[in-house]
Amino acid sequence: MSVPEIFQNTRLPVVAAPMFLVSGPELVLASCKAGITGTFPALNQRTTEGFREWVVDIKDELAKFAEENPDAPVGPFGVNLIVHRSNPRMRADLEVCVEQEVPLVITSLGAVTEVVDAVHSYGGVVFHDVTNRRHAQKAAEAGVDGIVLVAGGAGGHAGTTNPFALLSDIRPVFDGTIILAGALSTGRDIAAAKAMGADLAYMGTRFIATAESRGQDAYKEMICEARPEDIIHTPAVSGVPANFMRQSLEQNDFDMEKLLDPGQVDFGEKLTVSDEAKAWKTVWSAGHGVSAIDEVPSVAELVDRLEAEYLEACRELAAEVG
Question: Which chain positions lie within coiled-coil regions (predicted)?
Answer without folding.
Answer: none
